[in-house]
Every structure is written in structure tokens, then in C-alpha cells.
Write a structure and sequence with these properties.
This protein is of the alpha+beta class. It has 2 domains: 69 residues, no CATH class; 92 residues, Cystine Knot Cytokines, subunit B (Ribbon). The chain is 31% helix and 23% strand. It is built from 6 helices and 4 strands, in the order H-H-H-H-H-E-E-H-E-E. Strands 1-2 form a two-stranded antiparallel sheet. Strand 3 and strand 4 form a beta hairpin. It starts with a helix and ends with a strand. One of its GO terms (biological process) is system development. It is found in: Secreted. This is TGF-beta family profile domain-containing protein.
Length: 193
């Protein structure tokens, strides 16, 4: 049964396209076995072949590393980049406007409630594109030319990521009383302004 699980794991990684590391592991194992003093004797004594799996562990298929390599199951080329790239902390700052959430204790919300209960607080965060319309262009031209009274701003007001829908949150305080705070958490976000 253990042998079958090992084989399933190997085939799973190969099928996912992450089997490119297997030939390098096999080559590394062969180099270490050939450089050791016992060489093939230690590999045969332990029942391990070139693939690291014994002949009995390969099950009914009987495929070794050479057969797997010849059949294309062990790809020597690296797999293509994953479709979903790994995100860093910095990329979270430049992410588009959207709903985020954090688990936080009620006492840390700053509303004056004495409660150790943890709630899911949802908020809006992210960047909004600055799409200027005809009104924005005309207004900035009139302000800069002095036709309209007002200060000339050096930077333009950009849209903000704001909640468009809210939801209530209910919790139990430390005196065992229920509290319901209306429109505390965001339920939908959009770029406003």
C-alpha cells in the first residue's frame, strides 16, 4: 500500500507539470551512489533502483526511470509558469479596488464596547484608475486660465475606493448583552469621485 502511495504521488506531480525536478533528483541519486564505496551493492541491498523506488515498489506497471523518461512522463524541461503568480505584499498595495476582510476583536474597533468577541470586519481598499471626463478637463482648464475663481491645484483629486453597500454586525459583550451596530462593515466597494 505504501508503494502505491509513493507511485501515486510521483504521478500526481508529473501530471501537474511539476515533475521536472525528478530527473535531476534521479541523476543526483545516481551520482551519489556511484561515488560511494558500496556503489550498486548498497542500492541493490536496499531494493532501490535508479528512480529511488524498488522494483517491488513499482507495482504491476514495472516502469523504471528510463521507461518513464522515454514515455515522456518525466519531463526534463521546466514546467510553464503557473497561471496565478505568487503575490507579494507590495502587489497588495497596487491591487484594484475591492472588498478586503480582517478578523478583529470588537474592543479594537474603537467603538467603546467591552467585548472579547472576534468579528469579521470587511473594508474597501485598493487603487482606482483616474479616468478624466469632459467636465474634469474643462474645469481644470477654466481654473488654470483664471476664468473661474479658485486655487489652481497641483495634483488632481483621484477617485477613492469606498463602500457602496454596508452590513450590520452583531456581537455579545463581556456582560453577556447583545449589541447590533448598523452599517459597520462594508458589503460592496466601488471607485467614487
Amino acid at each position: 500500500m505504501r508503494v502505491l502511495l509513493k507511485l501515486i504521488l510521483v504521478l500526481f506531480y508529473v501530471q501537474r507539470g511539476e515533475g521536472h525536478f525528478l530527473p535531476s533528483l534521479i541523476d543526483h541519486k545516481q551520482e551519489t551512489e556511484s561515488s560511494s564505496h558500496n556503489g550498486d551493492e548498497s542500492a541493490e541491498a536496499s531494493g532501490l533502483g535508479a528512480s529511488g523506488l524498488g522494483a517491488s515498489e513499482l507495482g504491476a506497471s514495472g516502469l523504471g526511470a528510463s521507461e518513464l523518461g522515454a514515455s515522456g512522463l518525466l519531463a526534463s524541461e521546466p514546467s510553464p509558469a503557473p497561471l496565478v503568480p505568487a503575490r507579494s505584499r507590495r502587489s497588495a498595495l497596487n491591487s484594484p479596488c475591492g472588498l478586503r476582510s480582517v478578523l478583529i476583536q470588537v474592543r479594537h474597533l474603537g467603538l467603546g464596547y467591552d467585548s472579547d468577541e472576534t468579528v469579521l470586519f470587511k473594508y474597501c481598499s485598493g487603487t482606482c484608475p483616474h479616468a478624466r471626463n469632459n467636465h474634469d478637463l474643462t474645469l481644470s482648464n477654466l481654473l488654470q486660465s483664471g476664468v473661474l475663481p479658485g486655487e489652481v491645484r497641483e495634483h488632481h483629486h483621484t477617485p477613492c475606493c469606498r463602500p457602496t453597500l454596508h452590513e450590520d454586525i452583531a456581537f455579545l459583550d463581556n456582560s453577556h448583552r447583545w449589541h447590533k451596530v448598523e452599517k459597520l462593515s462594508a458589503a460592496g466597494c466601488s471607485c467614487v469621485g
